[in-house]
Amino acid sequence: MTEPETQSVTGKTVTGNTVTENTVTENSPELLANVFQAIETSEDLGFLRERQDIEIAHLLESVDVPRRLSVITSLPAKQYWQVLNLLQYETAKNIHTSLSEALATERLAQIAEGDIITFADFLPADFVEEFLLSQSAETVAHIQQALSYEDHKAGRYAEPAFLVANAKNSVGRIRNEILKRAEIPVRLVIVRDAAGIVGTVAPEKLLNHENNVKLGSLAVSTPVLNDTQDIYEISNQIPLDGNAHFFPVLCGEKVMGIMSLTTIAVTLRELSLKTIVPENVKSEEDLFTPLKVATRLRGVWLVINLMTAFAASAIIGLFDNVVQQVVALAVLMPVVASMGGIAGSQTLAVSLRGIALNHLHQSNLKLLVHKELKIAAINGFVMGGAIAAIVWYVFDSLALGLIICCAIGVNSLAAALSGTLIPFTLKKFNIDPAVAGAVVLTTVTDVVGFLVFLGLGALFLI
Predict the structure, then answer these.
(1) What is the dihedral of CA 310, 316, 321, 324, to 10 degrees?
(2) Average pLDDT, the chain
């Protein structure tokens, strides 16, 4: 039999049928800073090979594309797919599709059939076809069967590493049968009788019993999964207590494969943020904070928001004569404020998620700011141009169109900058950015939007 597969999953290592706690250091600011310094000074990144796969995955989530490529290039080709399996799917896709042709070819040479199933959606179709041609009929059938399921169904992840045996079979007979299949790993023996599946036995357990012991006496009741079952519901069905690590998957009444605890844990990683969100992220309010406490916390920021709303109104008051003379400005002010608010909320959501997942630090804050400003400049001025054309047509004023275009573009830049910096700054002062971030952001976008829009209106329309 082959060696049991080992993979690090959110602080635990699953090796065959053994789960052990693992001390995983989250992507620390020190590691991020060291990588940045090494890349800038053209130093070797070989020290990353001593880091765990989960640390490398966190690192890749925290840097831009050029630095991601530097990190990926420094890793052994065999480790590449292990790390990709720990990333968010879209991150893994973006990384792989950004590789040079030579590097992609080198990495594809180390791919396993499980990776083909996981990443088939973005792997080159011709490569998948060539890979299947080089595999056995059993492997091809397994991959084609897996790919026939949607990526959130249990059948997609079922492995053919099992043996179905009658409860009356002896340990000696099953042990001999496993030895005959030495070229195909058996990770689970599924025990059945006339009524159906009665339980499972880990192959390693057979070594501790005499040959004449009946298999039925060793079977342990294990949850049975259905091939069309949504994998996101499986966590409510299986026990994550470390006693079972493989589960039968049925297609109708027939066993089609087994699903490992490792696969379930990796697939459900997105739904288990509590296992990877660091404890040092302070939250003033959780889902079920007592009513009085939650009301007080939110009330404070509502009062602050009221004060900031008056600040935005004061900006409008400075240009009341302009608004009276050019009524179109009053009609279009909500458009400027809304565009800035939406752009800022998108950036704020990205920043909050980066903080929650421990991906955003002082070391890579500048990278995120540059990225968001570029996005804001493109979207802001493109959308501003489109709105300007409509305003020009409706109000028959080219000057008014150009003014609103500039106002939306500048406000989008301000929204991107504040949406990135505000949550990071609030976190520094131990203020919950999830509660306070939107209040500060709205103030910035309203003040900047009205100031630029009405200021330009006063200069060029009066």
Answers:
(1) -100
(2) 78
Spell out the long-range contacts of 226-230 with Cβ–Cβ below 8 A and sequence spacing 24 or more: 226/154, 226/250, 227/149, 227/153, 227/154, 227/155, 227/158, 227/251, 227/256, 228/149, 228/153, 228/154, 228/155, 229/153, 229/154, 230/152, 230/153, 230/154
Q: Which structure tokens are listed for 302?
A: 């509502």
Same domain flag for 313 and 379: yes
Q: How far apart are CA 232 and CA 359, in angstroms?
A: 25
Please list the alpha-helical segments (H only) found in 85-124. 89-97, 101-108, 113-119
The tens digit of pLDDT for each residue in 306-363 reads 565 556 556 665 666 666 656 778 778 888 888 888 888 888 888 887 877 777 877 7
Tokens 């207590």 belong to 241
Tokens encoding 337: 């404020």
Name the token pair of 86. 């720990």
pTM of the model: 0.60
* CA–CA gap between residue 164 and residue 189 (Å, rounded): 6
The per-residue pLDDT for range 248-284, each reduced to its tens digit, is 999 888 898 888 887 777 666 544 443 334 443 444 4
Domain extent at residue 179: 162-271
∠ Cα 372 377 381 (to 5°): 145
Asked whether residue 317 falls in the same domain as residue 430, the answer is: yes
Apex 190 CA angle, 187 and 196, nearest 5: 160
Beta bridge partners of residue 248, listed in sequence order:
258
Shared domain for 214 and 362, answered yes or no, is no
Report whether pLDDT(285) > 50: no
